[in-house]
Amino acid sequence: MGLGDKISNAAEDATGKAKEKFGDATDNESLENEGRADQAKATAKKAGEDVKDAADDVKNGAEDLFDDKK
Question: What InterPro entries does the record point to (predicted)?
Fold first, then answer.
């Protein structure tokens, strides 16, 4: 995961938490739900990036393994 993606996901998560708390404090259920949705999107994006990172690690490990056998 690139640094820009990490920053973007963290910002989206923080924004979601702020919306949720502000919605709770003002009895605005719609804003609370919007905040929860923002947090869920950030979590899903992070999971997708983690899967890509793991696949890259496997690919690099396999390349290293085969390079060592030459």
Answer: CsbD, YjbJ_sf
Count other C-beta atoms under 10 Å from residue 54's C-beta.
10
Residue with tokens 């999971």: 47
Tokens of residue 8, six digits: 């973007």
**Residue 9 φ then ψ, to 5°:** -65, -40
**pTM across the whole model:** 0.77
Q: What is the Cα–Cα distance from 65 to 43, expressed in whole angstroms?
A: 33
- What is residue 69's DSSP assignment? T
d(C-alpha 14, C-alpha 52), whole Å? 23
CB-based contact 43:14 (threshold 8 Å)? no
Amino acid identity of 17? K
Pair of tokens at residue 51: 């899967």
